[in-house]
UniProtKB/TrEMBL annotation:
Example GO biological process: transmembrane transport
Organism: Dethiosulfovibrio salsuginis
Keyword vocabulary terms for this entry: ATP-binding, Nucleotide-binding, Transport
Annotated coiled-coil segments of the chain: none
Record-linked PROSITE patterns: ABC_TRANSPORTER_1 (PS00211), ABC_TRANSPORTER_2 (PS50893)
Stated name of the protein: Nickel transport system ATP-binding protein
Family: Belongs to the ABC transporter superfamily.
Presence of the UniProt keyword Nucleus in the record: no
Ranges where the ABC transporter domain occurs: 5-251
A Pfam family recorded for this sequence: ABC_tran
CDD domains per UniProt: ABC_NikE_OppD_transporters
Length: 263
């Protein structure tokens, strides 16, 4: 499988404190190796502060590792500078759709921005592409003149997905992208992402705290703990490593049918 993104030996540390005394070096990522192929969905779970966001920023080229390297479609990222091709190849959808959209831009303007940055589309061709993106995520193009505040949370997240799809990326980082949605809308958005993966061959790195979503959506899954990736089966939650934290996450999954407490 041709890798879209490859992380090889990626290490990252931060310095904590240090205003009045020597700062403490805190390792966050310790030799991360990960490859994601075309059309593949890889799940990533881990406690708060485990380094998931740091790994995402490095993968996007926003932050550089202390050691190791990142390659996007075989192009090694160096010095935080990405070519237009590499920058187009990996896009992101954040958890809070309202905060990730400019409230003064209409849905049309939100989608037009990446199209103008990454393509030569202008005029009618640009408008047709915007309308097509809205249809792909199940929205009516007639709604493109509305501002973010006029959409529901689920609708606005669909616009964010359409924005990520606009430059035709090879992979999308879904950073808790459905966590703020109710379960019905979650299912609808995941079905949409599944359809787009089959249609377009888009790969996903799916970051979440919810193992139920990992089971529903992912081909492979990893737990990020103590700066290292530990693989586990996304359907059975079984790992060859001894992972007490994974067992705790499994026990925390709500039962399908609520249990009546003994009186």
């Amino acid at each position: 499988m041709n890798p879209v993104v490859t992380l090889s030996g990626v290490t990252k540390s931060y310095i904590r404190g240090g205003f009045f005394k020597k700062g403490e070096i805190v390792p966050v990522l310790r030799g991360i190796d990960l490859s994601i192929g075309s059309g593949e969905c890889v799940g990533l779970v881990g406690p708060s502060g485990s380094g998931k966001s740091t790994m995402g920023r490095i993968l996007l080229g926003v932050e550089m590792p202390d050691q190791g390297e990142v390659a996007i479609r075989g192009e090694r990222i160096t010095g935080g500078k990405l070519s237009p091709k590499a920058r187009r190849a990996v896009q992101v959808v954040f958890q809070n759709s309202l905060d990730s959209c400019n409230p003064r831009m209409t849905a049309r303007d939100i989608l037009a921005e990446p199209l103008k940055n990454f393509t030569d589309l202008r005029g009618k061709d640009l408008e047709d592409r915007i309308d097509d993106l809205l249809r792909k995520v199940g929205l009516d193009p007639k709604e493109k003149g509305k501002y973010p505040s006029r959409f529901s949370g689920g609708q606005l997240q669909r616009i964010c997905i359409a924005r990520a799809l606009a430059p035709k990326p090879d992979m999308i980082l879904l950073d808790e992208a459905v966590s703020a949605l109710d379960m019905v809308i979650q299912a609808q958005v995941l079905d949409l992402l599944d359809d787009l993966r089959r249609e377009l061959g888009t790969a996903y790195l799916f970051v979440t705290h919810d193992l139920r979503l990992i089971r529903r959506f992912c081909d492979r899954a990893f737990l990020l703990q103590d700066g290292k990736l530990h693989g586990f089966d996304p359907k059975t939650f079984v790992s060859k490593d001894h992972l007490p934290l994974l067992s705790e996450l499994v026990r925390a999954i709500p039962p399908t049918t609520p249990q009546r407490a003994a009186i």
